[in-house]
Design brief:
This protein has 259 residues and is α+β, with helices and mostly antiparallel strands. The chain contains five helices and five strands; from the N terminus they run ααααβββββα. The protein is rod-shaped, with a radius of gyration of 56 Å.
Length: 259
């Protein structure tokens, strides 16, 4: 579509061409006609070039506008991503602050826990050696295991605490149960097969298999003979420990034995 200004320009050129044809001589008319034709053709080429430039500018403008819209969309997306990641970073910083706080608490706990663990094992060691000397092999091995655990650099404080609590639980169970077992003891200079009855942490008794020898373990670790009359009471107590007899009262010597 030709702009209005271009149409006006073409109209003026046509009028000039017609006037020149009427007022000029035939010779000059021909020369003027050629010159006028050349001017018209030049003007047309110029206008055509201008039109092509205008079309290119319009295409460039459309492309630039599309690029601007794309850049705006990208900016909106980037703003959203920035906002989202700033929120993530804020949450991560809060988590890091909480982890650092817990780390400091753990360090404080570890500082106070480690001496307590050593102190607990020492008290357990003293308690075992001051206690009635039963199952000393088992209990001594457990103590050694705990001391080795405390000396293990690669073992965490949590695992050390767990092992110590487990050992304390086992020791506490010794005071709550009754256990019957068999053993070979040296009694009156001879090896004798006996039944052992441990009553909590209070006493350990023995009865020979034939029931003729009865005794108990002293705090010093020696086996003290008892009157043979206790054999029946101990036999009943052992049957109760094995759940072969209903629970009933029995008379067993826990203190000094009178003759």
């Amino acid at each position: 579509m030709v702009p209005t200004s271009q149409k006006s320009h073409f109209l003026c050129l046509a009028v000039l061409l017609i006037v020149g044809l009427f007022v000029a001589s035939p010779l000059s008319a021909a020369s003027s006609s050629r010159a006028l034709q050349e001017k018209v053709e030049g003007a047309i080429r110029s206008e055509r070039g201008i039109q092509e430039k205008a079309e290119r500018w319009a295409a460039d403008r459309t492309e630039v506008l599309a690029e601007i819209r794309e850049l705006k969309n990208q900016k909106q997306w980037l703003d959203l991503q920035k906002k989202k990641y700033l929120s993530y970073i804020e949450k991560l910083n809060e988590s890091l602050a909480e982890l650092n706080r817990k780390k400091k608490e753990i360090e404080i706990l570890k500082t106070s826990l480690e001496p307590y663990l050593y102190e607990t094992v020492d008290r357990l060691d003293l308690s075992i050696h001051q206690d009635l000397p039963f199952l000393m092999g088992e209990r001594t091995r457990r103590l050694t295991f705990l001391k080795d655990s405390l000396a293990d650099y690669d073992l965490g404080s949590g695992e050390k605490l767990r092992r110590i609590l487990e050992a304390l639980h086992v020791e506490a169970d010794y005071g709550r149960n009754i256990e019957k077992s068999e053993a070979v003891l040296e009694i009156q200079g001879s090896q004798t097969s006996v039944y052992l009855l441990r009553i909590g942490r209070t006493a350990v008794f023995y009865v020979s298999l034939d029931g003729t020898k009865v005794g108990r373990l002293t705090p010093t670790g020696e086996w003290e003979p008892l009157p043979s009359g206790y054999a029946s009471e101990l036999t009943r107590a052992m049957e109760m420990a094995e759940r072969r007899r209903a629970v009933e009262l029995v008379e067993l010597p826990l203190g000094e034995v009178k003759p």
